[in-house]
C-alpha cells in the first residue's frame, strides 16, 4: 500500500506536466518570447556576465552552455521544462504532511496548473519556472535545517538552482530566510542566500556604472488584469502578467471568475485546519512568502511612480518592476490551502464512493477551469527547427577574424515565418560563438522601454554615419568585427562596408576590417571568477557533505552490529 501511495503522486505530477507541455516535447526547439534555446550555446564572456550588456541571463546561460556540451540543446530544453513542473508538484506535496493523498493531489494540481505557470511558459521565463519548481523543496530543506540544526546537503544544490535568474533568486532568498533564519542559523542562512545569488549580484554591480534603467518600464511591467479579472484579483489567482498576448483566452470569460471563487472557497475551508496542524514557524514562513510576493506585485500597480523612481535610482531595484513575476512567492501557500480545503471537504463525505468521486473532481478542477493550457497552451508551444543559414553564419564567423557581432535590425524581437510566425527574442545572439551587440529596447503598445546596454547606443550612433565605410570604421573601433542582418525582420539595417561571408535568404553576414578587439577588464574577470567559484563550490560542498554523512552512518551501523 505504501508503495502504491508513493507512485500515485509521481504519476499524477508527470501526467499533468505531459498534458501541459504536449507538443513541446516533440523534436525541435520551442522559441517563444524570451525562451530561446539553440543547439549549442557557446561558453563566452557574456554568459559569465562580463559582456557589455546587463547580465540578464546570469547564471542560467552559463549553466546551459556547460550542460549542452553533454546533452543536446533540444533535449535539454525538454528535460528542464518537464523537470521543473514535476519537481514543483512533488515538492508542494511535501508541504502537506499528514494530509490524505487525494488532498495532496489537489494541491499538486493547483501548483502545476494555474495562470502563473501557463503565462511564464508562453512568455519564455524558464529560469523562473525552475525556481518555481525548486521553491517548495527549498522550504522543506530549510525546515529540516531549522529542526535538526544541521544544514541539509541538498539545500546547497537547491539554493543555487533556484537562483538561475535575478527574480527567481530574490524569491528563493526570501523563502530560505523566512523558513530557516533564527538564532545561530541566521548568519549561515543569509550567507547561503547571498552566495546562491552571487553571480548576477557581482556581475550586475560591475555594469552598474554604465547601465541605466528606464523608469517607463515600471508602468509597462506593472501587475495587470488577467482577462476579466482586475489586477488585485488576478494576483490572488496567480495571474496578472503585463503581457496581454500571453493571457489565455479562457481568462476572458466566466471560467476566470469561477476559478477565483472556487480557489478562495477552498482556501477558506482549509485555513483553520492547516493552521491547527502546522507548526507555527512553518505557517509563518509560508504567510511571509505570500505577503511579500503579493505586496511587491500590488506595489507595481498601486504606486508605479515609486517603483519607477527606485528602478532609476537604486541599483538592482528594477527587479521588482515585473509585478506578476514575484507572485511565485504566493504559490506555495495557495496550493497548500487548496489542498487543506480539499481535505476538509472530503472529511465531510463519509461514504467511500461519493468521496472518491469528489476527490477526483477536485483533483482535475484546475485543469477544467484552465482548459486551454493543455497540449502546449493549445498548440502555442510548437517546436521548430532553425534554418541552415544559422549554422552557416556561426561557421562563417568562427572561421573569420576577431571582433564581436552586431545584430541588425536594432530591434529586440523577431517573428520569423520559420517559427510559425511567433514572436521570439532574436535567437542569433545565442547561436553564435562571439559576444553579440543587440538591441535591448522593448516596445509594448507603442511605448518604448529604453535599453540598458551602452554599447548598443554607441552602435546606433555609428550606424548614423553618412557612408557605409564610415559606419564600418566606427563599428570596428568599438570592437565589432561582424554585422549580421536578419532579412526576415522588419526595420532598418543600414549598409556597412565589409567582406560578405554569407548571403542567404534569412541572413547576411559581413566581416569588418581593422577591428579593435574589446578586452574584458582584469578586475571584472577576478570579481566574476570569485563569484562563480563560490557559487559552484556549493555543489562541491554538497557532494562532500553527503559522502561524509553517508560514511558516518555506515560506521555507526557497523559499530551497532
Summarize the structure.
With 561 residues, this protein is α/β, with parallel strands linked by helices. Helix content is 57%, strand content 6%.
Protein traits:
two-stranded antiparallel ribbon; about 550 residues; 23 helices; alpha/beta; single chain; 5-stranded mixed sheet
General description of the model:
With 561 residues, the protein is α/β, with parallel strands linked by helices. It has helices spanning 2-21, 60-67, 73-93, 101-112, 115-123, 126-148, 155-161, 166-180, 186-196, 198-206, 216-220, 231-236, 254-277, 280-302, 304-313, 331-347, 352-369, 374-379, 388-399, 428-431, 454-463, 468-477, 522-560, and strands at residues 404-408, 413-414, 424-425, 436-437, 442-444, 447-449, 480-486, 499-503, 507-511. A hairpin with a 2-residue loop joins strand 5 (442-444) and strand 6. The mean pLDDT is 94.
Structure class: alpha/beta
- The value of Rg in angstroms is 25 Å
* Coarse morphology: globular
Percent of residues in beta strands: 5-15%
Described by strand count, sense and barrel closure, the largest sheet is: 5 strands, mixed
Helix content: 55-70%
Number of helical segments with 4 or more residues:
23
Strand arrangement, major sheet: 4-1-7-9-8
Question: Would you identify the regions where 5 or more consecutive residues have pLDDT less than 50?
Answer: none
Overall average residue pLDDT: 94
**What is the number of beta strands?**
9
From the N-terminal CA to the C-terminal CA, the straight-line distance is 31 Å
Amino acid at each position: 500500500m505504501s508503495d502504491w501511495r508513493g507512485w500515485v503522486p509521481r504519476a499524477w505530477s508527470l501526467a499533468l506536466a505531459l498534458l501541459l507541455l504536449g507538443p513541446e516535447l516533440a523534436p525541435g526547439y520551442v522559441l517563444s518570447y524570451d525562451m530561446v534555446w539553440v543547439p549549442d550555446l557557446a561558453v563566452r564572456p557574456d554568459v559569465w556576465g562580463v559582456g557589455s550588456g546587463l547580465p540578464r541571463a546570469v547564471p542560467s546561460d552559463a549553466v546551459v552552455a556547460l550542460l549542452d556540451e553533454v546533452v543536446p540543446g533540444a533535449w535539454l530544453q525538454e528535460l528542464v521544462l518537464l523537470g521543473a513542473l514535476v519537481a514543483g508538484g512533488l515538492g508542494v506535496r511535501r508541504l502537506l504532511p499528514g494530509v490524505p493523498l487525494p488532498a495532496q493531489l489537489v494541491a499538486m494540481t493547483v501548483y502545476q496548473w494555474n495562470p502563473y505557470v501557463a503565462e511564464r511558459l508562453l512568455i519564455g521565463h524558464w529560469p523562473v519556472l525552475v525556481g518555481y519548481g525548486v521553491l517548495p523543496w527549498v522550504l522543506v530543506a530549510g525546515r529540516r535545517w531549522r529542526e535538526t540544526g544541521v544544514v541539509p546537503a541538498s539545500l546547497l544544490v537547491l539554493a543555487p538552482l533556484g537562483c538561475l535568474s535575478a527574480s527567481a533568486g530574490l524569491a528563493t532568498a526570501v523563502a530560505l530566510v523566512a523558513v530557516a533564519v533564527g538564532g545561530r542559523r541566521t548568519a549561515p542562512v543569509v550567507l547561503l542566500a547571498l552566495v546562491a545569488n552571487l553571480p548576477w549580484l557581482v556581475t550586475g554591480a560591475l555594469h552598474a556604472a554604465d547601465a541605466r534603467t528606464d523608469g517607463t518600464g515600471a508602468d509597462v511591467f506593472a501587475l495587470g488584469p488577467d482577462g476579466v479579472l482586475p489586477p488585485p484579483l488576478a494576483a490572488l489567482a496567480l495571474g496578472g502578467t503585463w503581457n496581454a498576448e500571453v493571457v489565455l483566452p479562457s481568462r476572458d470569460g466566466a471560467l476566470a471568475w469561477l476559478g477565483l471563487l472556487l480557489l478562495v472557497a477552498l482556501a477558506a475551508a482549509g485555513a483553520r485546519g492547516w493552521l491547527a496542524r502546522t507548526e507555527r514557524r512553518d505557517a509563518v514562513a509560508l504567510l511571509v512568502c505570500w505577503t511579500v510576493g503579493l505586496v511587491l506585485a500590488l506595489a507595481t500597480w498601486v504606486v508605479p511612480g515609486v517603483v519607477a523612481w527606485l528602478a532609476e535610482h537604486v541599483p538592482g531595484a528594477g527587479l521588482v518592476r515585473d509585478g506578476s513575476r514575484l507572485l511565485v512567492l504566493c504559490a506555495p501557500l495557495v496550493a497548500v490551502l487548496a489542498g487543506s480545503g480539499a481535505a476538509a471537504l472530503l472529511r465531510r463525505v463519509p461514504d467511500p464512493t461519493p468521496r472518491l468521486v469528489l476527490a477526483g473532481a477536485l483533483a482535475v478542477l484546475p485543469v477544467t477551469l484552465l482548459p486551454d493550457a493543455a497540449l502546449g497552451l493549445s498548440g502555442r508551444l510548437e517546436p521548430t527547427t532553425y534554418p541552415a543559414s544559422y549554422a552557416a553564419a556561426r561557421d562563417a564567423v568562427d572561421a573569420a577574424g576577431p571582433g564581436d557581432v552586431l545584430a541588425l535590425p536594432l530591434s529586440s524581437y523577431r517573428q520569423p515565418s520559420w517559427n510559425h510566425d511567433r514572436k521570439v527574442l532574436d535567437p542569433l545572439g545565442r547561436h553564435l560563438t562571439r559576444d553579440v551587440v543587440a538591441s535591448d529596447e522593448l516596445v509594448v503598445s507603442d511605448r518604448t522601454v529604453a535599453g540598458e546596454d551602452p554599447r548598443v547606443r554607441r552602435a546606433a550612433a555609428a550606424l548614423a554615419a553618412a557612408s557605409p565605410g564610415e559606419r564600418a570604421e566606427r563599428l570596428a573601433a568599438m570592437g565589432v568585427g561582424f554585422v549580421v542582418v536578419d532579412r526576415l525582420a522588419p526595420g532598418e539595417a543600414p549598409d556597412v562596408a565589409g567582406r560578405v561571408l554569407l548571403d542567404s535568404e534569412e541572413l547576411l553576414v559581413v566581416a569588418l576590417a581593422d577591428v579593435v578587439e574589446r578586452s574584458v577588464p582584469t578586475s571584472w574577470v577576478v570579481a566574476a571568477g570569485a563569484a562563480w567559484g563560490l557559487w559552484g563550490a556549493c555543489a562541491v560542498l554538497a557532494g562532500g557533505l553527503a559522502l561524509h554523512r553517508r560514511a558516518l552512518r555506515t560506521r555507526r551501523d557497523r559499530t551497532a552490529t
